[in-house]
């Protein structure tokens, strides 16, 4: 919660008749922020309301467990089945065909029932419920078995095969091909879908379990507003209603119950305040450039004509570009043709053509320098966040020791964990501000952004420094107070930056150096 | 269980092909249930009359649930849907495979594909495809857009 944010100022403005009240409220806020557990009883409801309200850079989302996902599917299926008066398994097939877009399914079904059923591979025929039967004189078209005792099965399309073949077929599809919602009748050219009930009837228990898992997976994969948490071995899915089209104006950051924070738009780890498309570009650029960029900058020059990067590893100043065959002088970068016969010795450094060639070079070097400026800061925060975590691990050990040797309680040192968490989170935000700023055009807006960035950066470094201090038992109270204050301040700075950036995105206030729609 | 279905089905198919062979189609090699070779004669009155081709079928133990791998070997017919490495662009061999289909029905489909051809020419993207394709045509993502030939 921000004490100095605009909202509080607005609140103060909105109740001029009761100044005292407002002040009380502010005091309460301060306390609340500094020491959460000392929450005063009065005005408690206000505090809760304040907390519940979404900040402008946050989005609504919901975390679903596997059980929720199963339940949601059931509810959707029951709803459609009741509404269209069709059996549940058919409703499920239809919903899957329409990627769980219930509204579109119902609309299309009302418009053109026959067509919808046909393309979705459903034949509604209550008298033809798939079940095992023995049919006299039956020969299975697949295994050619004509034993009179064999059980046979046909879907509502009437194509009949033996139990064994069905079992093989479904097992193959589910186990080997990972197919679930699009398994069709075995007959050539028949698109009738094998419904859930039939699958359960035919296959073994373990295969059926696999089938259900695959169905759950497709439910989330097909659903635009659902996404699996990308954390390793996490089984939660997140529901968030931010469409792909609005990703240039919103950074939908969500937090899973496993505490992993990621972007709903692209599944990458939390990259606020930068928008997905710039993040993607930045990552690609870093993969292409960063490793070698430094070395190239220090050791090479560019061909004046084709801009290939050239390393001079010996020989005279007369260079011939391997790629475009341009001949130039390594010293002045001018064309070699103007050097006459003064080999090994360049006296043309100040001539026009040589200067032009160097200007060109300087420009491209400048763009590299610019990139490195942002990249180094980006990488620095990534690295520092790691170091901060390590520092915390070390501190934690020390705390345990101190607990045994002094009369400090565990709870008294927990403020450090909170501080490190905040620090790491702010570093992540800072990291992505550099990727964002790299693509911003130079204007006043960008300057404001960079001011916010600088403020956060300074605050973060101060907090980081505080945490580096050696812990002395007698001064722990003092340190605690300092750390708590700084932690609050750092969160505020982060909040201000995120709020302003998010507002800018919504107002389309940011101008980019690249086309973000492409 | 899988092997019984697989071998039972293939033995039945083999007996059927030998006793009652379709016109112009003959089993040339069927020593194992892994790989068969069948000869395919160009039908009289079509562009391929008088020519003889060889089709190779490779089966996995999942046959007939899984499609066989079918390619031309040796003399490859020049046809807009047959690449010069022997790969055949025919939907029933890939995503439209059904366990009901058989070696016989695949051969007949390919024979009719040859017979309905009006100009002997390789596929437009032949050079590119042959250079980049994997050994098995089942690894290719086929798109089927021309049902006329």
From TrEMBL, chain A:
Residues 136-350, 140-185 form the RING-type domain. Its EC number is 2.3.2.31. Residues 1-23 are annotated as: Disordered. It catalyses: [E2 ubiquitin-conjugating enzyme]-S-ubiquitinyl-L-cysteine + [acceptor protein]-L-lysine = [E2 ubiquitin-conjugating enzyme]-L-cysteine + [acceptor protein]-N(6)-ubiquitinyl-L-lysine. SMART domains: IBR (SM00647). The keyword Disulfide bond does not apply. GO terms for molecular function: ubiquitin protein ligase activity; zinc ion binding. GO terms for biological process: protein ubiquitination. InterPro entries: Ariadne, ARIH1-like_UBL, E3_UB_ligase_RBR, IBR_dom, TRIAD_supradom, Znf_C3HC4_RING-type, Znf_RING, Znf_RING/FYVE/PHD. It comes from the Eukaryota. It is an enzyme of class 2 (transferase). Keywords: Metal-binding, Repeat, Transferase, Ubl conjugation pathway, Zinc, Zinc-finger. It holds the Pfam family IBR. This is RBR-type E3 ubiquitin transferase. It comes from Gigaspora rosea.
From TrEMBL, chain B:
It holds the Pfam family UQ_con. It comes from Gigaspora rosea. Keywords: Ubl conjugation pathway. PROSITE patterns: UBC_2 (PS50127). Residues 5-149 form the UBC core domain. The keyword Flavoprotein does not apply. PANTHER family: UBIQUITIN-CONJUGATING ENZYME E2. InterPro entries: Ub_conjugating_enzyme, UBC, UBQ-conjugating_enzyme/RWD. It comes from the Eukaryota. This is Ubiquitin-conjugating enzyme/RWD-like protein.
